[in-house]
Amino acid sequence: QSALTQPPSASGSPGQSVTISCTGTSSDVGGYIYVSWYQQHPGKAPKLMVYEVNKRPSGVPDRFSGSKSGNTASLTVSGLQAEDEADYYCSSYAGGNSVFGTGTRVTVL
Amino acid sequence: QVQLVESGGGVVQPGRSLRLACAASGFTFSAHGFYWVRQAPGKGLEWVAVIWYDGSKEYYRDSVKGRFTVSRDNSESTLYLQMNSLRVEDTAVYYCARDISRGVLLNWGQGALVTVSS
Questions:
Q1: Which of A68, A80, A98, B37 has the CA that lies 20 to 30 A from B8?
Q2: Best of A9, A22, A92, A97 to mutate (most B CBs within 10 Å, chain B)
Q3: What's the rounded mean pLDDT across residues A79-89?
């Protein structure tokens, strides 16, 4: 039940891209396609941004994209906008339940 | 539209109990599993409990096993979290979330604050 590992922070200027990594094990990230990414603004509930590695729910801009290689998943936010400043959490199915990442604060400079 | 509304949060002394409820609407409640996820002040997200669509299976994180129980009433479209023997470290905002597939949490409630303090 260990949390997945994310960098504490990431930043970029408006219009630039930022990529966040999420490292797990073969029992979670490496073993399943059910890797998700959530965005959370202060005081708000999390919002699903990417699921099954690289799918986006309806209404999520295509600036958000996901990928996975081995035990590490990544979220890329292209064309950074001010409203993208938030905390981002990855999550992976681990058989029975999902585990969350440690979270990354994205700052738009 | 899909709505999840938590209730039952509050301030409670260590060792006491509290029950959270999550009222759902806008979708077929009985077709989905649900998570309870919590977030301690200034900390990250942490899964607490999972219940299958039909209530046949439950999973708990180790720190709440034997103290917390997740349940559901499909006739009332309501999810519950019974929390017993509460500890200071259980202080958090508790969210209910709809699982659309293997832990993909599409919809979340607004959260219920549980504060455990003497």
A1: A98
A2: A97
A3: 97
